[in-house]
Design goal:
homodimer, alpha+beta, seven-stranded mixed beta sheet, about 30% helix, about 35% strand, globular
C-alpha cells in the first residue's frame, strides 16, 4: 500500500531537503542547463528567492520531487508563468512529474497567471515532452543546438506553452 | 557632415549616460517587458552586472543607443549569447540598431559564443523583426500573447536565432 504523494510549498529554509534531488538531476547534465557542479546556495537562491516559489513532492517523509514557479518575465510579460520540475532518479515512472505539473497549473491559476511557458525543454527528453503535451502544452518554438547534452552533445531545445 | 557612430563597452559606473535611452524605451511599453516605471538602479543591475555586458552607441558625445550582451543560459547553455538593444526615440531610422547588432555579433564571436538567441522580440515591432532577419536571424518560435503591449494589448512574442 503506497502512501499518498503530498505537494507543499517551501521557503529558502526548507530547501536543504530538496537539494539532493536538485543536485542529482543537474549533475546528470541531460535536462537542465544549470552548471552540473552548481552548489546548494546558488540553487536555493534561484529557486526560492521571490518572485520564484518552490514546492516539494513528498511521500513517507521523503522528498521525491521539487518544482519552481515564477513569472517568466517581469513587468509587461508577468502574466505568463514559468516552471521547472525535477524528480529524484530513483522515483521516476511513478507519476510524480505529472502530479507536480497539475499542482503547478493550479497554483499558477490561483496566483493570477493566464498562461504558462517552458523556455528550455531539452528535445531528447521525450518522456517530458510527451508529458507536457498531455498536460495541454504545445511546442511553440525549437532552438537548434541550444543545449550541450552530457552524452548526446548539441541538442535542440523546445519552447512549450499553454493558456490557463 | 555627420560624425561617426562610436560603440564602446561601459561598466556600471558609466550606465548613467545610457539611462535616458533605457528609460524612454521601456516607458513606451511597446518593445520590452521590463516594468515601464523601472528605476535606474534596477536597469543598471540587469544590464551591467556580469556576466551581462553593456555597450553604448555615441555620436558627438551623445548616447543614442545602448545594448546588452550576455549568455542566454548558464552552464550547458552558455554557448548561446543573448542581446537586447535600445535606440533613443529621437535617433530612430539612422541605422543605430543595425550598427549595434553588427557590433554585438562581433563581440559575441570574440567572446566565444557559437550562436545568438533573442527570447522576446515583440511581433508588432516589425521594423526590428525585419532588421534581425537581415542580420541572419530566423524566427524559431512564436509565443502567443506573451506581451501586454501598451497600445495593442495582448501581443505575440518571437524567439529568433542565428549561429555565429
Amino acid at each position: 500500500m503506497s502512501a499518498t504523494l503530498a505537494i507543499r510549498e517551501i521557503g529558502a529554509d526548507g530547501f536543504a531537503r530538496a537539494w539532493p534531488v536538485f543536485r542529482a538531476v543537474v549533475a546528470a547534465g541531460d535536462t537542465y542547463s544549470y552548471p552540473p557542479d552548481i552548489d546548494e546556495a546558488q540553487a536555493r537562491a534561484m529557486w526560492t528567492t521571490p518572485p520564484s516559489r518552490c514546492f516539494v513532492a513528498e511521500r513517507d517523509g521523503d522528498v521525491l520531487g521539487v518544482y519552481m514557479l515564477r513569472p517568466n518575465q517581469p513587468g509587461l510579460g508577468d502574466h505568463v508563468a514559468n516552471c521547472g520540475y525535477m524528480v529524484a532518479p530513483h522515483a521516476r515512472g511513478q507519476g510524480i512529474a505529472s502530479a507536480m505539473c497539475t499542482h503547478s497549473l493550479e497554483e499558477a491559476r490561483r496566483a493570477g497567471f493566464s498562461a504558462m511557458q517552458y523556455n528550455f525543454v531539452v528535445s531528447s527528453n521525450e518522456t517530458a515532452v510527451r508529458l507536457w503535451q498531455r498536460h495541454g502544452f504545445a511546442i511553440v518554438g525549437r532552438v537548434p543546438g541550444a543545449f550541450r547534452h552530457a552524452h548526446l552533445g548539441s541538442t535542440d531545445v523546445l519552447v512549450m506553452h499553454r493558456t490557463l
